[in-house]
Write a structure and sequence with these properties.
Blueprint (H helix, E strand, L loop, with lengths): L1 H7 L10 E3 L2 H7 L8 H13 L5 E3 L7 H6 L3 H5 L2 H5 L20 H7 L11 H10 L3 H19 L14 H19 L1 H8 L8 H4 L4 E2 L5 E2 L11 H4 L2 E3 L4 H13 L5 H8 L3 E3 L2 H9 L3 H6 L14 H4 L7 E13 L10 E11 L5 E6 L4 H15 L4 E4 L3 H13 L3 H4 L3 E4 L9 H17 L5 E2 H15 L21 H4 L18 H23 L21 E4 L11 E9 L5 E8 L2 E6 L3 E3 L3
Parallel strand pairs: 1-2, 5-6, 7-10, 7-12, 10-11
Antiparallel strand pairs: 3-4, 7-8, 8-9, 13-14, 13-17, 14-15, 15-16
Length: 616
């Protein structure tokens, strides 16, 4: 119709348009406000009303509607004799006053299905406000909702008094009143018994925590702190703050609002700001519960995941093995080594490093001096170590490039090196020195003695190597077990007993070289001494490894999909990469201590203690 009217404009001006339909439901939609109907119908009704005004639409009976002939279809012989199709209804050629008028009786069920129902409920039930507080995470939004509801109620009551009608943006007093409505609802829910006792002048029967505050009810029915500051020259809200429970949703929303408004202060500062207007029961617990979940504060001071329960010792730590057949290795340094002694040569130095091998069973220590941290330097130190201590079956180390490179070189030089040489490298996860405590403790002990003996002196390679040999002997003379309770027994089991059948630094004894001992007796004596050492090791030393000195608590395993910060000690916490756990690697006891994390730069395997789960 709109297209026809537009096409006739150059030739003939159309004064009035009449639209007909035999659908009473459609006519009811068109003649009503679009906002009454659901979105689909409302959009189309609005479009129709923009083209043809609602008053131009009329109802026609189905028998007089020529459109039915086209929509339902007619056979050719029926179409020839169908006057309604060719000429329209008979009454259409008459004056408009004589056109038939039919009352609209639409189907109510169809109208009801398409009608948009809006229900306004006004109630004093506090459960409605409680549900609102659970639905929204912003106190500011809640205040504005309550303020708009109060404005609507005010305008509904004062429709005949234009001066009292409110309009325009919400004012600060209106928003503040919205907060007081929420506080009143919370107090009625959480402090009902206390408020009733105060109203009945039974303050002495209040719990001790309330009696210390001397609470009272103000004119608005709000519970406030009486306190001892009534004579102070402060605002009323500061002298008598509103009482709030610790574990209510509104309390958490209020703390979160102040926390963000005042730029993420600490717990004590935030408590002082809140105390200007609100008195929260056990405030620091409530504040910490909210602040600990703040992502911005967490990124500044991340909290690492709790250390998993300490695992059981591996078999190579608690079974009888030849000394150094299984060892942990690590590098320490650098140390300054002088080029030599002579004029001008003391000031020329180069870097040196200490390679420490620790026997996993006996805690015996072997120290080698290396001039660099390369794989070749480590292989040279390993060859010297094996030449003096015998073949090693297992080496436990971190994933330093020198250790990984040495392992690759051995496998490349010797086909099936693990079987041929009997040396198997076991690498700890990256960034997890606590997985190799023996090697780390050995490095610490060596550095302690070097710092006390050498100090700031610069030794030559030969001098430094000599000092390291003496430190090695000293460490191998440390007792593994406490001294005997017998005051006359001054002996103790040391790592040196498993290396030379006696401590490496002992009190001089009587020379028995001239005493004749048969070869068979000597062999049996050595065998018995060796067996006595291992017997003492299993009876006196083994039980000292029974206790877990730390990491005693069992925590739930981290879950796949957890969002975490990956700890990087070389950068500030704000630059730590964000990642998501995609795989876990639980140990034989079912406790997960290592996981695989996906970050923006790739996949990494990290220990759980080097991750900070995001508080979501």
């Amino acid at each position: 119709m709109a297209s026809v009217v537009e096409a006739l404009k150059p030739f003939h001006s159309v004064g009035q348009v009449f639209a007909w339909s035999d659908s009473s439901v459609t006519l009811t939609w068109i003649k009503s406000c679009p906002s009454r109907w659901k979105t689909f119908v409302a959009n189309r009704v609005s479009h129709i009303q923009d083209i043809i005004p609602p008053e131009s639409w009329h109802h026609v009976r189905t028998t007089d509607n020529p459109a039915d002939c086209g929509s339902r279809g007619l056979l050719p012989h029926d179409l020839v004799n169908q006057t309604c199709w060719w000429n329209g209804p008979v009454w259409l050629s008459r004056p408009a006053e004589s056109w038939p008028k039919s009352a609209l009786e639409p189907e109510r069920d169809i109208l009801h299905d398409e009608e948009r129902i809006t229900v306004l409920v006004v109630s004093n039930d506090s459960s409605l406000l409680e549900s609102l507080m659970e639905r929204f995470s912003s106190l500011r939004t809640l205040q504005r909702i309550i303020a708009y509801c109060r404005r609507f109620a005010n305008n509904a009551k004062n429709q005949k008094v234009p001066s009292k009608l409110l309009s325009g943006p919400l004012t600060p007093p209106e928003i503040q009143q919205g907060l007081l409505v929420l506080v009143r609802c919370v107090q009625q829910h959480s402090f009902a018994e206390e408020a009733e006792k105060i109203s009945n002048n039974l303050s002495n029967s209040l719990p001790k925590a309330f009696r210390k505050l001397a609470p009272f009810m103000d004119d608005a029915g709000l519970l406030r702190v009486g306190g001892r500051l009534s004579r102070a020259s402060l605002d009323f809200d500061v002298k008598h703050p509103l009482l709030l429970p610790r574990d209510h949703r509104l309390t958490f929303l209020l703390i979160d609002e102040y926390h963000k408004r005042f730029m993420h202060p600490g717990v004590q500062t935030l408590h002082n700001l809140l105390a200007q207007h609100f008195w929260i029961m056990s405030p620091k617990r409530a504040i910490y519960a909210v602040v600990s979940k703040c992502l911005r504060c967490f990124r500044v001071r991340p909290l690492g995941a709790p250390a998993p329960f300490m695992g059981d010792l591996p078999s190579y730590r608690i079974n009888q093995l030849k000394a150094f057949s299984s060892a942990a290795v690590d590098f320490g340094g650098p140390f300054d080594i002088a080029l030599g002694r002579g004029r001008g040569r003391n000031n020329k130095t180069y870097k040196g490093y200490v390679c420490v091998f620790v026997c996993t069973a006996t805690k015996a220590v072997h120290i080698e001096l290396a001039t660099e941290l390369s794989s070749d330097a480590f292989l040279a130190a390993l060859r010297r170590f094996v030449s003096r201590r015998g073949r090693c079956c297992r080496l436990v180390s971190d994933q330093g490039k020198n250790f990984v490179g040495a392992s690759n070189i051995l496998q490349r030089l010797v086909k099936d090196a693990a079987t041929h040489d009997g040396i198997r490298f076991e690498f700890n996860p990256p960034g997890s020195p606590h997985f190799s405590g023996l090697a780390e403790a050995g490095i610490k002990a060596v550095k302690t003695h070097l710092s006390r003996v050498i100090g700031n002196q610069r030794l030559t390679y030969e001098e430094f190597s000599t000092v390291l040999s003496q430190v090695e002997a000293l460490l191998n003379s440390r007792p593994l077990t406490p001294l005997s309770s017998d005051p006359n027994d001054l002996s103790a089991l040391t790592p040196g007993h498993f290396l030379t059948t006696e401590p490496l630094s002992i009190v001089p004894e009587e020379d028995l070289s001239d005493v004749r001992v048969g070869p068979l007796q000597r062999w049996k004596l050595l065998q018995k001494m060796h067996q006595d050492f291992w017997s003492k090791w299993s009876k006196e030393y083994m039980h000292t490894l029974q206790q877990r000195m730390k990491w005693h608590y069992k925590h739930p395993n981290v879950q796949v999909g957890t969002l975490v910060l990956v700890v990087n000690e070389q950068t500030s916490p704000m630059k730590w990469p964000l990642g998501r756990i995609i795989d876990t690697h639980p140990g034989s006891d079912g406790i997960c201590r290592v996981v695989t994390v996906r970050t923006a730069t790739g996949l990494y395997k990290r220990p759980v203690v080097k991750l900070c789960p995001i508080p979501l």
